[in-house]
């Protein structure tokens, strides 16, 4: 803000004089083309890559189709796919439950832990950069490497964890523990991500706010909760949204381990295993995808409502 | 659901299995995320891409035959290149990653497929033949020597015409180490009771009787198939896989029930183990035997250890059924429905069905055998020779659960179903009822 007065006034006046007061901004032909392109290209991309596939998916969820042959081989079977998903597909409810567990877990532990790390690192400790890098590393590592690292740790017969604990726990195979084992791996990655997001936000908080709070005699903790946290509202919402999205689209790590079977079912993996392959159940997979879309919509609506209400109050 | 098909694939898997599997999984992931929302547009897009790719090669002479290969590993890729080079035809090879090839086969065949491509016998072949996506090659079969009736049957579509040329095959059986068994005085069991007695003896001797792994979901299908073939016979297997028999029938319940009785002799915690790890326990003489395909030999170092490997047929359960039915998946080739060079394609297929082609291909992998009885068996290992005899004397040959039934049923119903059984072997009624009701929802079209 303090920069503003230093901007020389002359060019601004010149700009004003070029346009007569009250007249509309002159738009040349080239400008028009550019403007049109800037509107049309993103619209086409969004409609073509997001809306059309999503709508097609919803439409196909009412069909039976193997993906072989033209569109005329599609049989329309009404809501039968949905009936089958809910009543005749044993992996569905576990998948739903696992996605919810995933969401709650990510929020309660890794997200809060990531925020905590960010607050610590923001205090310019010695070696901050090293810690930042270390915690952020899991986010950058390729999926291949992550699968490898955790396989080394969790393998029943040759893994680190069983060797250290002198146990014989089947971390990936026992349906009672494998979800939690995977959640630790997922949380390991998620915490680093949240840390970085939050750290970026913290760096943007005006230091004078903290100084003022300190002058007023507020403790560190009080300063954080009463001053920093409210200022960080936009970042908090982003973190929340990111967490929900991560939980709903959880897929990669589980797919690497066992393609989402045996206690690791997630809606994302069910969609994939039904749609991909030689003779795919495209309609059935689409029904699952549509259900996933609806669940996401619930969360998106809640967030948008909160954000908009917040904007309105300001 | 990939089987290891070569030594190099085995070598790749010596690294922790998750790494080996990951290349596949990442692609699967990408397709998955797109597929989730974009089933249709993705399909058409991929088909379109396929079309664009192929256009480039079209301008050459009519002598050229295009060949779509799923042999993406270095060793078999080289073996295939050698094999095709010796055909005397100009063959343009288009190699696609093994798993990717299978996952995209729909789009591939509907787009602009190569003239000749690698595929599997059984339902997986008939499925595409009956959709009109594969070319009739009955006239090629007329000129093939060394192919017995079982092979011909496995290459025949629902309409009685041939659509497939076999190249290699391998048996599923119980594998064991000769040195360990002779040291302990074990004899291959002939009946289920003998198998149980032997297993008990092995447990007393501090061994795990039957090595077992089902993390990937398909190896246990082999156990189901063996029990089903012994209890209900080959024809029941075929009908069950075709959706004609009920999964909640007493016959199927008996299969699961027998399996439940054998589970205490299986290596525990199978759902977290990959087949390579189970094979290692056989190699290290911690387990007595292992029910798997002959590719188990890929986990055994060449030479002394590989020579020590032997196998026997799954023992008899019902004397009226016997042990005549075995499982031996066949890999081979098909022709596109509308090949650009039909004459050349058929000439190539004719060549691929000969012993000469098989001999070159076999050099890459000592755990498979040539399908043709004319293949040169003089360089075979003892294990390969035994496999030839084993398959040759079989009364009927099944492919494998996921090759004999609809792929969607195998992967989305049977795979989780069998894993559920392994987790909770007590609820057979509930499981079979659920399998049957899911089968009905899939086998309607």
What does this structure look like?
The complex is a heterodimer of chains A (314) and B (445). By secondary structure, chain A is mainly alpha-helical. Helices cover 71% and strands 1% of the residues of chain A. In chain A, strands 1-2 form a two-stranded antiparallel ribbon. Chain A is globular, with a radius of gyration of 26 Å. The N terminus of chain A is likely disordered. Chain B is of the alpha/beta class and 445 residues long. Helices cover 51% and strands 13% of the residues of chain B. In chain B, helix 3 packs antiparallel against helix 16. About 12% of the residues of chain B have low confidence. Chains A and B meet through helix 2, helix 6, helix 12, helix 13 and helix 14 of A and helix 2, helix 5, helix 6, helix 19 and helix 20 of B.
Number of helices of chain A: 14
Strand content of chain A: under 5%
- What spatial form of chain B do the alpha-carbon principal axes imply? globular
* Helical fraction of chain A: over 70%
Order of helices and strands of chain A: HHEEHHHHHHHHHHHH
Name the largest protein-protein interface in this structure: A-B, 71 and 63 residues
Distance from N terminus to C terminus of chain A (CA atoms, Å) equals 20 Å
Query: What's the mean pLDDT score of chain A?
Result: 83
Q: Give, in spatial order, the strands making up the sheet with the most strands of chain A.
A: 1-2
Q: State mean pLDDT of chain B (0 to 100 scale).
A: 83
Largest sheet of chain B: 6 strands, mixed
Beta-strand residue fraction of chain B = 5-15%
